[in-house]
Write a structure and sequence with these properties.
Layout: H1 3-26, H2 31-51, H3 55-69, E1 78-80, E2 85-87, H4 119-125, H5 128-131, H6 134-137, H7 146-151, E3 153-157, E4 160-164, H8 191-202, E5 210-211, E6 214-215, H9 235-240, H10 252-261, H11 264-267, H12 297-305, H13 333-343, H14 347-350, H15 378-381, H16 389-392, H17 398-407, H18 438-449
Antiparallel strand pairs: 1-2, 3-4, 5-6
Amino acid sequence: MTLRQWFYVTTFALLGVFVYALYIDHFREWKPYQREYYRRMAAETRARMEKAASPEEKQRLSNEVWSWDWRGLAIKQIIARDLGRADRCVTCHVGMDEFTNPSLTNDFKENPYKPHPDLSGLVKKHSFQKFGCVVCHGGQGLATTVRGAHEGIEVHYGESHIASQYMLRPPFLQANCAKCHADLDKTRGAEVAAKGKALFEKHGCVGCHSINGVGGIISVDLGDIADKPPERIAPHDFHLAKMPADRESITVQNWILAHMTRDPMTFVRNDPEAKFNLEPIAPSGMPPFYKDFQEGDAEALTAWLLSHSHEEKIPREYYVYAAPKPEPKFASAAEHGKFVFQKFGCAGCHGIDGKKGRRNFNGLAKTQKQDASKPGDFEEMAKGEEPTLPDTMGTFTRDELRVKIQNGVPPTSVAKFNPEGPTPPGFMPPWKEKVKGPELEDLISYLQSIAKKEEGGW
């Protein structure tokens, strides 16, 4: 082939690429939404023009109709400088673009044409030009396709769909309220997240988990749980969780929700029979809290946990701080001790009010005897549990309880059902640096007050 022929081929190839680029740009996904919004606004304005009483009003509305009919299409964005981001959500949601629709109102009912449903409340306090959209709704702000903006960044791992930077929908949307509002119990529109925070405290989650270093040391710190890379969630484990069809995508939201609506031990099984490791590894030590939950509790707790992120760089002036709550007054030492029991998350292992010990895989339950004859008996090891305090507190003197609380019970000292099986995941850390002085003494008084009493004493 001659140089002239190469010139012709490359020239026409370049022309083809140019035409193809124009074709792709003409059929961008966002363009029909803008066209339809402008068409609707033109039709609405035309209807008002036909009803106008004065020639001047007709002429003004006629000019407005003309502006809607001939308005050009363009990428629209909100630059939230304090947050260091640009959100292009208003490219499709034109009714929420303050420059196209200054009043931020219209009569449209469906997305993406309708205005924000809470102009007098949330929008009044959260200016679009200051906050943008993503800081509240999540999603990928720079995307200009529905799937890219709403579902975020997608990765396909075999048959599994892994997503990050996805948009949060109610009730999980309230997670983003908690990123700025420490006063959740006083924040309108954040009732679900506030409920989740209260549930975290009620069920003693802080006894095992810490939040940014404050709390227990038995399990992982949840201070950045919302930043967990979805690629680290094993598809096999996720599918064992048997999430509903609308929760099949592997996201941090759905992974947390799985722990709240399923038994974590059934999908985070690890290797309790030492089939793949030199030593057996117990499955997830998280009890099946979902059995104690009421309707909506799992979603509320998930929403609150999703607020824990370090990736979002929110300026200090955006925060709404909560006034410190004074410790309530108590009529007796035992009542104060009950408060201490709840404050430090003892309910996480010993149950609410210490009434029933939680599950502890391969821990020796009071109904079991040690048995090494069935090293692979998963079901029997799964019956292990923490001590039920009313049954055991009467066996300790006050001094013995003090020593036990201060020094704790290390993992290697927890009695096993199967001596050859995995170390039980639940153990009692030493509390001497956290629970001391009057709190320790009153906690002991509370524990002794719930002990089962028999004739002749404890």
